[in-house]
Queue: 4 jobs
Job 1
Amino acid sequence: MSDAFSVDLDSFSLCASTADLDEEPAAREHADLIEFRMDLADDPLDALADYDGDPPLLVTNRPHWEGGETAPYGRLDALAAAVEHAAVAAVDVELATLRGRPAGTNEIDAEGLLDRARERDAAVVASVHDFDGTPAPATLDGLLRAAAAAGDVGKLAVTARTTGEALDLLTATHRATIRGDRVATMAMGEAGRHTRAVAPVYGSRLGYAPVDAADATAPGQYDLATLRRLVDDLS
Ligand SMILES: O=C1C[C@@](O)(C(=O)O)C[C@@H](O)[C@@H]1O
């Protein structure tokens, strides 16, 4: 992999989140990375083969059971094929998958996918999503610890129903950063929206935003230009 396509997880990176790699020209100005939501794309491997943009790619192929669109069959195989592309600098794998949740029919298993990512120098984002709420602080700590240990960065997206829950996530982010865990956090939903701008102040390494707010890939996302400005202003 060329150095041009790598991700620095020791500082914050902003991902333009999209199902359409043709958005690259619009994303390039503000994004450090493009999160390619393979599960939301029509022919993701063909689109990857045609990609000749500047920002490195983070590939995500989210299953139904974690808020995505991909059926289990061939899901990990598609990610394994994706990391073969030079532009792919990182791959998102759910913590549940890494912990052995049955992945459906795939030639490769989670361990094989991790090995493939390592061989290709692709960073692994071990992710956890809670679309219903925000777990108690001790659970937030446990999830961040486990995710950070399972991948190169542990990502936790929860749903904040109150600003107090958003604050719980920020506090857990701060605690994780202080103990040396590399994490990325965001609270979905209106009450958590500001965490997308503020969590990087507490050590969150990744943020996600659509080029156009109408194409949000999660509740409460800012558009890309707005999140770039907010993060830059606060850092
Ligand atoms: O996991 C994440 C974070 C996210 O859910 C968000 O809340 O911004 C958006 C997803 O596209 C990405 O895979």
Job 2
Amino acid sequence: MDDTCQTVLNTGLRGVTIASTKISDVNGAEGKLVYRGYLAKDLAGNTSFEEVVYLLLFEKLPDRDQLKAFQQQIAEQREVPEQIIAAMQAMPKDALPMDVLQAAVPMLAAYDPDIRDTSIEGAGRMAVRLTAKFATIVAAWDRIRNGKAPIAPDPELSQAANFLYMLNGEVPDDELAGFFDACLVLHAEHSFNASTFAAREVASTKAHMYAAVAAGVGSLSGPLHGGANTRVMQMLLEIGDVDKVDDYVANILDTGGVIMGLGHAVYQVDDPRAHILAPMSQALGKRAGDTRWYDLSKALEVKGKAAFKERKGKDIFVNVDFYSASLYYYMGIAVDLFTPIFAISRIAGWTAHVIEEQYGGAAAKPALYRPESDYIGDYCGPDECAFVPLDKR
Ligand SMILES: CC(=O)SCCNC(=O)CCNC(=O)[C@H](O)C(C)(C)COP(=O)(O)OP(=O)(O)OC[C@H]1O[C@@H](n2cnc3c(N)ncnc32)[C@H](O)[C@@H]1OP(=O)(O)O
Ligand SMILES: O=C([O-])CC(=O)C(=O)O
């Protein structure tokens, strides 16, 4: 390894700043999340997902006319080529939804008329297409795997309401659509999280947007990242009852496991998004006349935090995936769709970051991410091993 390199071995790059960005800021100490200067908590519930996509892509909030035109642009791009739907119909019905979504990304690239256009305008059009179509793919897959025909998108509906409509065949009421919209707003962007970093790393090679986004989807699927929301719900279902929380927590910590939805690589306080998601989960529980999953989440938060502190002598906090789980469950969404739902929102952040990576961020950086590694493998004594042909080994 080059002596001039800063050594941050096996730290997962925690605390290492690798590039500047104008897109978002995560203040881990204060628990603040800012999208292009605006607090995400001020945007959720007060703006639509489409407004936030516009903000992330075009660096400012739209005025009324700009928003109307942008909503129309998104609505016009929601249809997915029938060949891709046919390919999905040919897939095994038990395929993982994140695999299906990831597989659809290069297929979408094959149908994108701008795929050879390297201009920033072309990238912007690709970003809009991907954002519009992700929701259609996720909803279509859920229907296909359940033996139902996909529902065509309704251009009159918002991205949030249209997703729920394409999933269930029913237009959601305002409260449900509003809550789902707020979820999309809250999941849209989070600086250099693992999946965005993966997307930016691919974009740094000058590969096209779809190649970068496919990497982002793969990274988001992991249980330590976006995949945690599905695992949180599986954990709640496994516990099943508030009375069993103590035993569950003790057992998981005794066996070196992790409580899904707790802990974060950056936040040293509660994730600010959890404070908005939790009351929405509680409200939907009340509306359903069954607050069990919210109550169980709350008990798990309290007891999990206390047990962690007792054992490790330090605090742990809830992250975005903790309360989104019960919230989506109350919406009647299949548990393994929670992470694809994260993706139908985070696509906005990924595409904004790909554009920033390729067409200019806040400051110049070398085009290609290429860190060093420390070789700790074998040599044959002081020298490299002498090669032995196959038939002499
Ligand atoms: C959208 C998102 O990506 S948000 C994150 C979603 N992921 C999860 O909810 C999965 C559960 N959480 C975790 O695994 C972790 O908290 C992470 C990966 C998210 C962040 O981890 P980091 O801050 O890097 O901490 P790290 O994994 O190094 O853990 C530090 C210590 O806390 C422990 N710890 C961290 N999170 C948890 C948890 N949820 N439950 C129990 N112990 C935990 C670790 O075991 C480790 O203990 P040790 O020091 O005795 O080895
Ligand atoms: O920032 C992270 O490490 C994970 C996260 O919360 C997100 O991607 O929303």
Job 3
Amino acid sequence: MSDTLSEIVAYKRSQLETKKRKMPLPILEAKAAGQQAPRGFRAALMAVHGRHALIGEIKKASPSKGLIRQDFDVPKIARAYVNGGAACLSVLTEDKWFQGADENLQIARQSMHLPILRKDFLVDAYQITESRALGADAVLLIMAALNSYEARDLEMMARDHGMDVLVEVHDEAELEEALKLKTPLIGINNRDLKTLEVKLETTERLARQVPGDRMVVAESGLSSRSDLDRLKAAGASAFLIGETIMRQEDVGAATKALIG
Ligand SMILES: O=P(O)(O)OC[C@@H](O)[C@@H](O)c1c[nH]c2ccccc12
């Protein structure tokens, strides 16, 4: 376990057995079936015209930065993102490194109308059903944590539950695997999840290799309007932003300032 991603994934896998015992899959399936229908995540991104399509992330802490935001009022943050003009939200549910919680997703969803991406480390089919049972509209699949079979199976399950899939890559080999999936949403993470280093050049380099029928979502390390303009010119059409906005007291104003 030399890098952060492997450590997190190992921890996730170790939690799974307990979770499955506490909440057996059939019960979870029933919960998922009882949820309101998924809101269109991809559709909401595609509906944005004339300004940047932003996915506003609700994130309290991160492995690279520690605590990011002290005053963490989820409904207030969620509604501020709406008022600021975000197209979608992303909610961290990972508890140990990001201080997230499953409840944060449920609370955010009850607080506003935008589609929500469940941001976590999903490596097992159980977690896909769990995401829908929590009310997620979309899930993140991280190619660096999955082989191509796992990615394909998890994607199929997510689609069966009516959720959109954002597949995350950070190099050429992962992009090649991601393009074999059905989802049109290709997230390019500027942060290397193994070393935690951030380079906007990652989006610039990889976006060029994404066919025109896919949609590039630039992720991580975006801190200004000019970063968004720069990556849009490189081919990104949506932007996933957490820390920059989470550090601002006024989330609505910070969102507006970024997307115009
Ligand atoms: O806070 P930032 O640098 O704006 O990044 C947001 C988002 O891209 C980042 O939280 C993220 C991208 N991929 C992930 C996978 C797991 C956990 C977190 C992430």
Job 4
Amino acid sequence: MKGICILGATGSIGVSTLDVVARHPDLYKVVALTANGNVDGLFEQCLVHHPEYAVMADASKADALRAKIAASSVADIKVLAGAEALQQVATLENVDSIMAAIVGAAGLIPTLAAAKAGKTILLANKEALVMSGQIFLQAVRDAGAQLLPIDSEHNAIFQCMPAAYTTGTVAKAVRRILLTASGGPFRQTPLADLDHVTPEQAVAHPKWDMGRKISVDSATMMNKGLELIEACLLFNVEPDDVQVVIHPQSIIHSMVDYVDGSVLAQMGNPDMRTPIAYAMAWPERFDSGVAPLDIFKVGHMDFEQPDLQRFPCLKLAYLAIKAGGIMPTVLNAANEIAVQAFLDEEIRFTDIAKIIEQTMSQFSPESADSLELVLTADQQARNVAHSLITALPA
Ligand SMILES: NC(=O)C1=CN([C@@H]2O[C@H](COP(=O)(O)OP(=O)(O)OC[C@H]3O[C@@H](n4cnc5c(N)ncnc54)[C@H](OP(=O)(O)O)[C@@H]3O)[C@@H](O)[C@H]2O)C=CC1
Ligand SMILES: CC(=O)[C@@H](O)[C@H](O)COP(=O)(O)O
Ligand SMILES: [Mn+2]
């Protein structure tokens, strides 16, 4: 029996993880669940999954959860509050695996704490890896932690080269990685209309049901930019070894092109329970609840080159990873600020890339080889992005 802590339990990945966990009560026990401010959502999950701990990262919400728990059938659950409590539950002795499913930079510190404690990290929170890069990977290596990718593309790549991933012999056998992308909701929208698209249109992903931030990232294709950086880090390849391929059906979740001419693809219905179940059962497999792929219904599959004029964020991500140092941290921070401003209707969709580009132009690729340097760059980039947004004409 493995103990699992789900950071970000109330989100899209958290809910899918609990669905998979519930199918395997003989293999997994929920030790801790965390949310930011969603008291009702976390309380409902506590009633069903009865963890030992429930954490409200927004400490001001903890008393509301405490009151509900105290008056319920699960009154023995310990309710903790604040960001430090995330680290506490991610490193508990009876936690074997953590699902890192907090959105954005807020997930870095608890996920890093779990890595340093030698836990198995089921990594959905790509921003944590992108912003901290080698620091995170070194922490995993130093502690003998196990890092398993949840992001559907990286999980697919892992499935197509598991031995190489675990032995570090990737570079010799692999010609390139084909990183698939849906193209998002604006793949065919006339370019002139992109200035006026709304947050609701942007979060209406054609294939995946996800949180709002990652959905906007898919619409700008910054999601693929972050995933490019994630792939370079996880699989120890260069940016030019990763080809982004738009595949609107989202049935192939990525491919690996080997030097002998073999191209291995992982396919399946677009449902995150598949990569979650793969990582949770690894190196075995178990049921995820996902319906079998009806290949006849799929019928055909299309592949396109990404248009960097339509998707400038993808170009910015290539520039950031090639520049190295703090630039991926700066890219990620500026993107988080710009996406939130777009969701809050403070800026236009097309301003997102402009804010990121202008923020990046104010930084040079200085060293990112300590957590302190990373966190400083992250904060400075957020400040710059904020001031650029404030300076935009109304
Ligand atoms: N959704 C998907 O299919 C995929 C997601 N990912 C990645 O997984 C991560 C989660 O995505 P997704 O589930 O869609 O996101 P959601 O927005 O649906 O969920 C985010 C979760 O994080 C919690 N959270 C938000 N802010 C904070 C904070 N400051 N401190 C602590 N907890 C916080 C939320 O709590 P609350 O509910 O209380 O606000 C919620 O539980 C992202 O990094 C995303 O890129 C990767 C691949 C696919
Ligand atoms: C499900 C998943 O892994 C997402 O990251 C997905 O890739 C988003 O779709 P896009 O390909 O449109 O970014
Ligand atoms: Mn993905």
